[in-house]
Amino acid sequence: MKIIFAFMALFLMPIQAQAVTLAEDIATTIMLRGHPCGGSAVSQIQQQSDGAGNRTIRATCPNGNRYQVNVSSDGRVSVRRLN
Amino acid sequence: MAVDLAYAGCPKDAAVERMVESVDIDSDEAKPERIETGETEGLKEEPVSVAGKKPDTIQKNSSKPAELGIEQLVVRLKKTKAIGLFTKLAIRSDVFDFKEAVESYRKREEFEENSEQLRDRFNGLLLKILALLDSDPVLSKDIHLARDTIWKSLVEVKS
User: Fold this and answer.
1) What is the ipTM of this complex?
2) Contacts of A34 in chain B (CB under 8 A)
3) What angle do CA B7, A60, A56 make, to 5 degrees?
4) Residue A38: which region, alpha, beta or left (left: phi > 0; alpha: psi -120 to 50)?
């Protein structure tokens, strides 16, 4: 009986969004800009930021493509392939 | 790091604020369907719903979506953990590009001719967001329900 209640409680729990990792976030951003990535998470992430507030992220997709994600100080996002 | 993390979502807008006031939660989707039987002679003309209940009763019992205002949806979109920061910024860029395209067509007085094309682009953008919200189905549903309101707020003429 306890097991039934435990299962019922599990199903009745409100569904909460799971937090995405940085690797997944960057992979999604790359794919949103129309670039192939071959998976849902990147690796070898390198982040840099300059004094003007621009941020640069370099990461490698599961398909081997390496990309640079540029986030400008006003929040504009662009992606370019490096290899 | 000088990138402001607080802007991960659409910004507040005068147009958006105006739309929040005019949001009608009781849209057509909440209204029950009527059945046309054709046998109306001798019967009282009461609206009959699919389930045979009065529409008023159904409207009282049906659960209304909690927050369908643009401002609330933007706040929820900012807060959701289903989408990461960079993805939110990318979506925000897309929304800005879309708004710029609308403004451009308006300036050239070509909006009406291109409204269908813009609507297709908007639908594509919305589809992207809904796909990203796979792990936040409640927000996804609410954005889907408010799609017409969002469209109107994006294409309305700013005074």
Assistant:
1) 0.79
2) none
3) 35
4) left
